[in-house]
Structures are given as structure tokens and as C-alpha cells.
Amino acid sequence: MALTGLDIFKLLPKTNCKKCGMPTCLAFAMQLAQKKAKLEDCPCVSDEATETLAAAAEPPMRSVKFGTGDSEVQLGQETVMFRHEEKFYSPTIIAVTLSDKLAGDDLKKRIDDINSLKFERIGLHIQANAVAIINESGSDDSFANAAAAVNDSSDLAIILCSDSPSAMAAAVAKTAAAVPLIASASADNADDMAKIAKENNCPIVAKADSIEALAELTEKIKAQGVNDIVLNLDGKALQELLFSLSQLRVLSLKKVFRPLGFPTMSFVTDTDTDAQVTSATSLICKYSGIVVIDTTDHAAVLTMLTVIMNVYSDPQKPIQVDPKVYAIGEPNENSPVIFTTNFSLTYYTVESDVESSRVPAYIIVVDTEGTSVLTAYSGDKLNEKVVADAIAKYGVEDMVKHRKLIIPGYVAVMSGKLEEATGWEILVGPRESSMLPKYLQEVWK
User: Which of 36, 145, 384, 389 would be 31's cystine partner, CB 3.0–4.6 Å?
Assistant: First the structure.
């Protein structure tokens, strides 16, 4: 459990030497407890105290990584139950299955289908993160060959799924440089699987059918020298699984129970695509670090990735675009000029609707610290001075010969002061961005 400021103070030298930059050791201890200072700032702390404090400072949920280079993914290292308490750190990893029964063109097509699960949303690139190779054939050679094919033809991280130590050893031999995730170690094969993981510096999945069994299994795996572990509760229906994942989260973060202080992985077993989306979405929210799916349907996977974006965005730092002037189409000196805020969702909605109008236009994006139009206006981050300064800063007057500015309908109240501040004629646009195409085609002159 995390130490309080007074707990930390008892471990410090109490000399009040001020070498850490603080007036007293107690002040330094309080800063350490709030994570506003680093232990190494104190030159007098003992080795024993350093070891104790380092252990206490270790995150309640271990960070686990697999894959290499650009394909490396991280899960775990979470600190809170709910996003509004701070934020979530490691977005859920979406892994797509690939059976080792596939061969030839069928295998190549499956790999290509998984590789193609890449999208752009509100200016960000999102995609499936891993390939989960399933040892359905029961053959060591087939499993190893499928793993080698994925390793050669995909840039995604690899999860090797087999209960057979011999099959796992054969597949890891082909993919060790890619640092695959080994899935899974159970009570029956833990020693053999842990040995493979340790020899190849790979993380491992611990699989059991209960929380109690998982706690025993992780201790057994750690005793073999493997500390990077992912938890998998096996054989549970969705409702029970969600409840158990929440229990694991509480035991890890609130109780700081180290045998369960690891991220989790879940398999979606539904065959219907819509059902997979429903199950995966539930698991993303509560609280699976990896969700393994079977579908390669683009609409389904995009839905899951969108949920991840929403759940794992930092509530204190809205997603923003750069404030500047954006040219939509090929605007000229007679094209309309519109302004909006730099909240990504607002901007990309407006951009899409302007593109749909087929009317080339300029969009001035003003800096409102990533807040939407109404939020920015109510907080005085959007006012006539902000817009006037943006027009001057980005040289909008040199881009068009007219002096007409279209403003969002929800801030029509700004029009009078905005005319005074800019000298431009203010045109009040529609309240909803979806009405922009009709407005630009029928009203703009």
C-alpha cells in the first residue's frame, strides 16, 4: 500500500539539511507522497530506506510490454478504478485471432485482413494492435509455421496461444526477436511455460478459472523468475467475467494485493459479429487490458477502437487540433470563411460537413484549449478578442477579398461585438454543423 507523508518521513534522515531543496525533511516527505519530488533528490537517505520506499512506490498494477519497435504495446500500470479520479494509462489492446489450421493463400489473406484494420478518426491513427495465433491444429509444426508467417508479414505484436509447451517452444523459436506474449500458463504446465518465457525474455499469460487460483499461479510463475504476467480468467460467461475483472481491479489497486497486481486479457467467444462488438465493448470498459476478437469486419473493429479512444482519453486534456487556418477543397479569394474551436471532435465534424457541401472554404480554428464552442464561450475562452486575434495572426484578410465571417449559430450573441472588434460582416451560421452543407450551398453569397 502507498506510504503516507508521515510514513516516508520516518524513513528519512531527519537532518533538515535542505539539500533536497525543501526547508525540512517533513516537507520533502509530503512532496514525495504527492509524487511531486523524487527520492534521489535526497543525498542522505539510507540504502535500506531507499529499498523500502522503492518497493512502496512500485505501481499497484505492473506494466507489461510485448512486441518490438513501433509494434510494441503496453498494458497495465493503471492506478485508479475510474477515469475521473486521474486517468487511465494503457489503452486496451485489440488482438485478432489467426488459426494455425490456415495455410497458403488462406493464411496470407487472413494476415492481410488483420493488417488492414487501420483507421483515421479525428486526426488520429488507430488500429488493431496484435495477432493472436491459435494452436487449433494441435501440431507443433503448424503452430510454428503460422507464427513465422505472421512474424514475416505483419508489423503487429504477436500473442502465441497454446496449452502445449512443445508447440509454444517451437513457435517462440521462430518469433523470439519479436517478443511475443506467451499464452498461456496453467496449473498443469506453469513450470514448462515459465521456463520458455524466462529463456526468451517474453511476458506470459497466467490462466485459471478463479481469482484464488490465479493468485496461486502468479506466485508460482514469479518463483520461476518471470515477473511480466497477464491474467486470464478462463471459462466464464460475460456477466460473471465482468464482475470478476472488477474484483481483480479492486484487489490490485485498492488492496494492493501483489499476486494479482497485473493487467488482464479476455477472449470474446461470440460467433456473431454484433455480439462480438457488444462483448468487446463491455470488456474494454470493465477492465480488460487485452481483448481478443475473431472478426475482421472493419465497422465492428472501428466501433471497438472508438470506444477505446473515448474511455482512455485524458479527461483533463481534451484532444486538440492545431489552431490555424485550414483550407477545405481549393478555396480562393471569394470563398467563405468559417470559424470553430480546436476541440478535435468539433473541428473534424465541421470539416466533414464543409467537405460534404462541395463549397471550398477556409476554416479558422481558434485556440480554446480543446473545448467545444458552447463550453469555450461559457468559460470566456471564446470571445470577440480571441477570434479577432486569430484573424490577424493567421493573415485571413490576405486570403479573401470579402469581409464576411460565418460564426456558429450557438454563439450568435457574439455577432455585435465581433463586428466591432474585426470590422467584418458577421453571418450567423446554423446551430448544427450538419446543416452547413445546405447553408453554404443556399445562403452563402
Answer: 36
